[in-house]
Amino acid sequence: MNTVARGAIEVRSNLYAVGYPRTRLHFVKGRVEDTIPAHAPEQVAFFRLDTCFYESTRHELVHLFPRLSSGGLFTIDDYGVWKGARLATDEYIEQNRLRLFLSRVDAHGARVAVKP
Questions:
Q1: Strands (E), 1-116
Q2: Cβ(109)–Cβ(78) below 8 Å
Q3: Which of 39, 84, 97, 102 has the fewest C-beta atoms under 10 angstroms from its C-beta?
Q4: pLDDT per residue over 29-69, tens digit each?
């Protein structure tokens, strides 16, 4: 079994262990640039970005942030360690004149914010 397949199994196992109803979890295989927005719900309460790179992070923000409910949370996993994720996030916030506080949540530099 290759690394990607092992990673997918680990993701599923971790999500199932949380106890959230399995029928509410949907897994979509593919690059975010190819699967979002087509496979994204119209409205979300939380999203977590963990793609590291500028292009993918930018794409996710452009398509998911507008779908995030007011008061919804989002996490940028690699903000503090990957320049691309940080640059895409900072540009998106600046270009959209968002007033957000990006709170550091772990030693790896992840940030979380609440949509006004």
A1: 44-49, 68-76, 103-104, 111-114
A2: yes
A3: 97
A4: 899 999 999 999 999 999 999 988 999 999 999 999 999 99
Q: What are the start-end ranges of the E strands in 3-110?
A: 44-49, 68-76, 103-104
Apex 95 CA angle, 51 and 48, nearest 5:
25
pTM: 0.86
The CATH homologous superfamily to which domain 24-114 belongs is Vaccinia Virus protein VP39 (3.40.50.150)
Domain ranges for the chain, please list them.
24-114
| Residue 55 phi, psi (nearest 5) | -60, -45
Locate 89 and state its tokens: 């996030």
Token pair, residue 35, equals 């699967």
Specify the 3-state DSSP secondary structure of 46.
strand
In whole angstroms, what is the distance from residue 79 CA to residue 57 CA? 10
Contact, 44 vs 68, CB < 8 A?
yes
